[in-house]
Structure formats: C-alpha cells, structure tokens
Please model this.
Amino acid sequence: MRVAFIGIGNMGRPMVRNLIHAGHTVFAYDLSVAALDEAVRLGAHAAVSPHGAATEADVVISMLPTGQNVRDLYLGPDGLVAKTRAGTLLIDSSTISSTVSSEIAVAARAAGKSMIDAPVSGGTPGAEAGTLTFMVGGSAEDLERARPLLEAMGKRIFHVGGNGAGHTAKLCNNMLSGVCMAATAEALALGVANGLDPAVLSEVMRNSSGTNYALERYHPYPGIMPNVPSSHGYQGGFRSEFQLKDMRLAKQLSAEYKSLSPLGDLACDLFALHCQSGNGHLDYGSIIKMMMKVPEGAAPGAASADDQMRRAV
Ligand code: NAD
Model:
C-alpha cells in the first residue's frame, strides 16, 4: 500500500521501518529535518508537507506528540481531512483524547473519508520488534482496510468499539502502567534501603504476586535489563512528559464520567512533580529517581538478574 506517515520520532521511526520491510511504500513527513533524513535512510520518500505526503498515498498514519498536533494536522486550514482525496483512510496512532479523535472522525466522514483511532502499547521495544498492540476505534470495515498495515507494525489488534474507543482503552492502560511503574519504583527503593540487591529483589517479585510489565520487560533500575532506557541514561523510550500527558487525559476522562481514580490521580501528581524537576525528557522509568538514588549510566549488559540470583543462592 502507499502510506503517508506523519511524525517520525521514537515510535514513528521503527514503525516506518517495519512498514517498508513489509513491502509498503512510505511517504514521510516530520517537522524535524534530522527525523526526515532518518526516514529516507530507512527507505521512505521525504515529503515537504503533510499534504505533499498524503497526495501520494491511499492511507495516512499519524504518530504525533499531542492532541493539538493531531487536531492541527487533520482539521487545521490545510488539514488533511479537507485536503486528501475522497476515500482516503486516516489512521491516528498517537495517544490523545477520545473527544478530539471523535471530532476528527465526524469531520472525516462528512468529507467522504474514513478514520480510525489506533493507539499503541508496547513502547519503543515493541515498535522496534514489530510487536505493538493496537487498540482500534472505528468501523470493522475500516479496520479490515488498515489491518495489513497494522499487522506489519504489531502483533495484536483489538477492535474495542466505535471512533474514540481505542483512545479510551489506551488511556485506561496508561493510567495503569503509570501507577505500576511508580509502585514498582517504590517497592525497589524499599528493598534497596533495607539492604537487598535490586536484581535479586526484582527476580523475586517477578516470580511473585507483584509481577508486572515494568518488572518483566521495562525495568526502571539501571543495568538489570540491557535493552531498556534505564540502562541507557533513560534516553529514548517513553518520555515522562508523555506519561504525564496520558495520565492527565485519563484524569480528565475520569472526571468527565464521574469515575473514581484515586491511584491514577496520585501517580499523575508524582509524574507532574518529576517533570517539574526537569525530568520530562527522560523515559518514564526515571520516576524511580524520585524514590531512590540510582547508579548513573550503569553499563548495559551488567550481570543479569538470573546471574545475580544464581550468585545469591
Ligand atoms: P517523539 O517526540 O519521539 O516523536 C514525535 C515526532 O513528531 C518528532 O519527530 C517531532 O519532530 C514530530 N512532530 C511534532 N509535531 C509535528 C507536526 N506538527 N508535524 C509533523 N511532525 C511533528 O514521540 P514518540 O515517543 O514517538 O510518541 C509519539 C506519540 O506516540 C505520542 O502521542 C506518545 O504519547 C505515543 N506513544 C509513545 C510511546 C513511546 O514509548 N514512546 C508508546 C506508545 C505511544
């Protein structure tokens, strides 16, 4: 398929690479020249504007930071809802509010185009490996059209409801993952303060009732997992400011529907403090720095938890 891809950042870059590997033709656009150069190096065609990319394509995929970016892309004066050919399928994979997403979908339908929200989970490791989880909101027919593209970038595709439902599911998930990351950091800090080795403690909790995604695949303590941001100075990955954005969106959703979210609200405030202290650009696992002192730049590939466990027993 011919795909316009807008937003070639930490997530967009590997997603573009996987689309190209699967045989699709990608027309890329990003505000950053460096990001665009990288897309060209991967085999994409560079466009000078979102419109330039979209006129070459049958499908548009966006992977942008905020709801405002996405709104401007589709609904602004040169917005893609107005400027694309009739029949174009629009797919937004950014994490934004379901309200903005639904608004774009309504405008798209009125202009003779289709739209699905398809936010993702799995982070940069999942984007690299092509194993992302997609949570899709929109019609079953539009999802079937998008499926070959989503399958090139991900492993699991859930159809969760009509337009906007994908974002609702994504915000529920990210509220939970933010709470889990903060709680995991807190438990590690408690153990280390009481003399435990963080690798041994992690192995214990991973095999006990406290296990979760942070412990299993995205460890926040440096040096325990070589290929995650904590072992690379918390660079790349999922920025804390994005985690905060998502938790604020979840909080908004919760207030709107008079739902209770005390743990989500508390974790949201922790991430706000973390970002206010100048850590917004660091991966969200860096929240552990709020709870304890961690070694700076621990060598990736340091003794694995299994090795340390063997030594400890
Ligand atoms: P990023 O900041 O690394 O990349 C965003 C890219 O968009 C940048 O290259 C930037 O130059 C470009 N950009 C910004 N505004 C633009 C515009 N108006 N037009 C064109 N390009 C523009 O962000 P990311 O980590 O790739 O995240 C993108 C989205 O995916 C966010 O909504 C985030 O919440 C979501 N997300 C991220 C992760 C993750 O682990 N990083 C995981 C799931 C979802």
User: Anything to note?
Assistant: Residues 2-161 form a domain with the Rossmann fold fold (CATH 3.40.50.720).
